[in-house]
Amino acid sequence: MEFGLITCSGVFNRVLATYRLDHTPTHRVARTLSAWSVTAKLTTAALTALWGLLAALVGTRSAIAAAGLLLLATPLLLPRHDRAVRRRHEPEPDPSRT
Of 7, 26, 58, 65, which has the fewest beta carbons less than 10 angstroms from its beta carbon? Predict the structure, then answer.
């Protein structure tokens, strides 16, 4: 199970990065890659420090449980595509009828 999750995450990250770089103007690719690198490193450091502080305050098991609950709740934060798809497929109003 864990191997599959790690494999899917690795594949998704590469595909998403390729997609985003394909849609980035050529003259901004170096700036975009630098920003991604800095942001990823700062986010990792900040979350590690934050979770270490949380573990010191409430205990290791509680901090791990909180992280697990947050991971399980992340699908609830995703935008709802059913509304967006419905809007996209609705016919445009005909201006000659009004």
Answer: 26
